[in-house]
From TrEMBL:
Residues 123-132 have a biased composition (Basic residues). This is B30.2/SPRY domain-containing protein. It holds the Pfam family SPRY. Residues 231-241 have a biased composition (Polar residues).
Amino acid sequence: MSKIMHSNLANTLQDPEVYYPDNKKVCECNLQAQACDPGTRPLCTSTAHILYRNRRETDKKISEMSEKELLSVGNGQSTMAQPEQCGVTAPTAGARSVLEDGLSLTPLDSNSDRLVQPFPRSPKLHRNKGKAGKPSQEQLSRQLEELQAEKSKTEAHIQSLKKRKKDLSRSTETMKQQVREHFEKLLAVLKQDEQAVLDSLELDLRQTRSRLDQVLKTWKQHQDQVTKIMGSTQRALSKSSATEEDEGQSETLSPMKPDASEEEIRLNEERFLRLRKTLYSISKSLKAQLQRKTLLLDSCPVVIDRQTCHSQITVDSEGRAMSLSDSGHSAPEHPLQFDKVCCALGLSPVTVGQNYWEVDVRCSPAWAVGVAYTSLQRKGRDKGTKLGRNRNSWCVELRNRSLSAWHNDRHVACQGVGQTQIGKVGVWVNYGKGQLIFYDADTMVVLQRFTAAMTPVFDRAHHQFTEPLYPAIRFLRPPQNQMGPNHLDICPLNNL
């Protein structure tokens, strides 16, 4: 049936006058057709006319391409007669065949069993069609060998992963046991010290009791003496008359007064108070050290980037110690260098995970320690270059003996800071969660915590880090009465 329909359509297109006459005739494929006026009639939507119009457009394109090809022969000079001069309105059958093959067109053929392909075929389909074919025995054997080798490699890798999984479990159990042993030793030391303190208190109690027993014994002897004399006196009073001999034998007793040394017999309360203070200090220090121990697991090495240092900042050979001098060095200025603000940044940024470092600030009367984006301005003296005075930096700073935390040109006073000057500043960053915490590294007191809860104070909608963070340090102008050495050191935590 499809062959008959295809043949009828092809034969019909050979005589388009029947379906689409150039003069006024009735279109036979449209049962309700009016007189077909070429200027006003609607286009016929039958399959035959659609194919016919597509074929006419294709013939027109082929004719134009053939004419261009003929005119381009001979260095741009035509070697053949013009189509108009020869009365030719269409290219030859050979040229048509070549162009059809180049455009991948399928001509209408009444004897063809294939469906009509009105659009050009993709060259990729032709290539895939040419490559497709039944593989040879050699190819299949080689493919099988490759698959077997891949299977063996996969099995070996799976076994390796399983072994690593078991090793991880064993390693974890070993580490747990080692941690238990360390804490058991620590608990044993604490228990031993506790027992020693309790024994000391018990000894003090026994000694105090012994002294009190001696005093108590003396007073009991005195009491017995008083009781004895009272008895003899009562017996003498009970007689109607007393002989002179008896009167001469009357006993007398001197009154006994408390000795002042008795007041000194007490527990050594002063020693106990000192013990309590020592235990409190040890407990506080131990708590801080345990907390610091957790942070030290996230410690990262910090090295100062000399290219960012102000000209008055001198960095040691290891890149950890910085000192501020009155006059700057004569090195050429770098584009990343701070030219007006005495500031410096770290060499390596924080981009992922948790990181902790400490800065020794004991030898600087005025300073700022924090973090900053690489987009922090380096030139000038405006707020864009100063730590904490913009959205690109965070810091805690000591100025005029007052410690405060700064970000986005807003600040809050640091709480929990005693009268003594802070010795070391700890900086902890959780980059993924957007958390930044400053510590007093000696006591592990939190100086300031920058998290989502603090965003209203610092005018931030979301506290998330959007750029790599660099450790930042700045020397501030010291008070007039505190002139002297001025240097800051990065603490080597990896050696602990």
